[in-house]
Amino acid sequence: MSQIFHTSTNVLSRLSIYGGVFIVALLGAVLYGIELSPWYTDVHVSREQPSPSATSTTAGETRD
Predict the structure, then answer these.
(1) Is 0.90 topped by the overall pTM?
(2) Within a 13 Å sphere around the CA of 62, how many CA atoms are in the beta-carbon half?
(3) Burial readout 17-43 (b: 16 or more C-beta within 10 A, e: otherwise)
């Protein structure tokens, strides 16, 4: 029985499958690296935090 496809087609199909898996894995690693980067998480960005004023209640005390 003769072959339908040329023998190099096996190599081409394997390379395309492994290449696709490699590209998906590489894309996942890049996106994971971006997600953990200080640029994305704003590590060094200082934000104004509300501070209690001197007239506000302290722990355990209530205002009337």
Answers:
(1) no
(2) 1
(3) eeeeeeeeeeeeeeeeeeeeeeeeeee
The pLDDT tens digits for 15-28 are: 999 999 999 999 99
Which of 9, 28, 30 is closest to 20 using CA atoms?
28
61 vs 44, which has greater pLDDT? Answer: 44
* 40 neighbors 34 (Cβ within 8 angstroms): yes
Question: Scanning the structure block, which residue is given the tokens 């190599």?
Answer: 11
Torsion on CA atoms 42, 43, 44, 48, rounded to nearest 10: 70
